Amino acid sequence: MGRIKATTSFLLLQFLLLQFTKSQQGFKEPSAARTLKQEPHDSPEVHCSRERSRVAWQIIEDYLMPFVEEGGYEISTDCRLHPDNDLFRDQEKHKINLDVNEWRCGYCKKSFRAERFLDQHFDNRHYNLLNVSQNKCLADLCGALHCDFVINSKLHKAKCNPAAVARNRHLCESLANSCFPISKGPSASHLHELFLRQFCDAHTCSGKTTPFPRGGKKRANLLYMATSILILMLLPLFYLLYYLYQRDMKRETQVLRRLSQVGRKAKPS
């Protein structure tokens, strides 16, 4: 009997240690995904920032693609701004954000408490899905696309480095030439001019021009959402008060009519 109790206690302790280890790794593993585990491998280091690549792609989506889609233009795969030339694009598309503190891997359906844990999971388990055979680091274009300005707009007011500005402007203009060749027709010519104004003109030490003067994708901000919710909450109250006001006015009118009729009847003949 004592041996059975000791065995049961040992198994219970092992189970608790296993659950604690999983919680420290930052993810919850569904039973359906257990069969999809990959063997650990010695993956070579990728010299490309996932975070800056993500910012660069967000800039492309917000401040360039609306104009490209509006013009019906198709970006060539030779253009470094094409989605196929983003090392992490396929993995980023397989991120599922279910809630503020829940992210899911689109490959194996594992769930994570934060995006950074999912990034680590991609690096460790799905490295083989990265195309590392070619130079496809979108973060290398951050200088031309003003990633630092988007991450921290205060950096735009820092001391200007003429050499860095000239280098970024040259890269920016080369992107305009390769992605939107003027020889491709009116649509490409229009986008070429827009790209120069939207991205390249701000590469100057004068400080007179800011990035993205043509605007971009409209996003609902928190103030707009809060105002909309407040209006929806106050609208029924407004109609209720209006109804009560109209009802009271109707009652007062009826009382006045009755008083008027009583006065007429009481008037001596």
TrEMBL record:
<dbReference type="InterPro" id="IPR013087">
    <property type="entry name" value="Znf_C2H2_type"/>
</dbReference>
<protein>
    <recommendedName>
        <fullName>C2H2-type domain-containing protein</fullName>
    </recommendedName>
</protein>
<keyword id="KW-0472">Membrane</keyword>
<feature type="transmembrane region" description="Helical">
    <location>
        <begin position="222"/>
        <end position="245"/>
    </location>
</feature>
<feature type="signal peptide">
    <location>
        <begin position="1"/>
        <end position="23"/>
    </location>
</feature>
<feature type="domain" description="C2H2-type">
    <location>
        <begin position="105"/>
        <end position="126"/>
    </location>
</feature>
<keyword id="KW-1133">Transmembrane helix</keyword>
<keyword id="KW-0812">Transmembrane</keyword>
<keyword id="KW-0732">Signal</keyword>
